[in-house]
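Example complex used in Figure S2.
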Amino acid sequence: MNCNEARQQLDALEQFDEIDATRDLVSHLNECQACYTYARDRQLVSLLASLPVPGSVPGFEDRVLRNALSGAVGKHTHLHIGWALATAASLVLAVFLTVQYYPVDDPRQSLESVQSTVIEVQPLETRVVNLLLTSPRDLTDALITVELNDNVEIGGRAGIDRLQWHTNIKTGANQLSLPIRLLEGGSGMVTVILEHGGSDKRFSVTVNAIQQEAQQKAQQKAQQKAQHTFTMA
Amino acid sequence: MAKIIGFFQSRAVRDRRFEEIVRPHLGSMYRVAYRWVQNRETAEDLVQEALVKVINRVDEMTQLEKPGPWLIKILYRCFVDFHRKHARTPAQHFDDWRGDFAVFDEALHLEGETSNNIKRLELQRDLLKGLETLNDDQREVVLLHDSEGYSATEVASILGISDGTVKSRLHRARTQLKKVLDQGPF
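Predicted assembly (419 residues):
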């Protein structure tokens, strides 16, 4: 077998598995470094091209188109929540918070303001919860505190129950991303506190473990999607 | 009254045209966004943001021979904005690019998988770990070029870099990834 024939065979392979390789091809690749390198490149690209992607949520296309056409500017995809005020009304901070996370009960369509929110996660699975702090003005040197109870950790860092830092809140949306992980079943609590100029705002996220029945449904759904994904690969 | 009716008619035409152009690319936009962020919900939000940015650019889109790469370019800007906002938080040290391995774990536990499929899944899982070792620039290029099949010129346009830079980043990324796949194909 010459190099041309070897590369034609390599190009014709759908997947680079041993079963697909003829004895002549294997023999050639063992002797020809250039074709071996070519085969490795083809294998790499083949694997990269078939890296699985989980399916989008059903109705995704219709929803994003509808939102774009209605000029929703993302509002319909976010759950709007409010702050529980911890200080007198005269010290109110005009900051609003939005959470980019989707609890189970079709919250994407919800535009109601609430004082706190509940999310459901699989125990020991890290989920990124994006908090969008929207401020009508710059807040220089604001203090943000994130408090975690014993059943929740951030980004796999065990033992951290409090994060605190100073930052400048800019006019408009400021994103705070928290990779939240529930350690056991039951529930946990994450509290975010923003302090500036003698006033503060507080928001709490209750993190509940996905219920068994919902978990089984999610697993069945994931298996069906995975089957589909790999059939296509 | 005629003006009002005309307004709504032209709006309806624009909306229909927008959907005709964009809908065929939503799947690839979602796929690219997912590959970048490795999170389904964030990927969907990025696509949403991109659409909001282009809703008033239907005329421009109509002129495009291939709106797909153009939409991915818009999506990339949304991704960069997301990344910048993300990195401003103290949690940024948790935010190094991490692969979403859940889909592999699920697939590997499926009954009926052939040994070849399992072997392929294991290689892909290794590859995802390899992608974690690349820097952002290399990973963005290799995911667009090798995973999504965009040409070097298209990748250059999407990322706002030169063709030569695309090729050098691609070469370095592939070299690194091949080290990860220490077991040859045959």
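The helical segments of chain A are 3-12, 23-31, 33-49, 60-69, 212-232. The mean pLDDT of chain A is 69.
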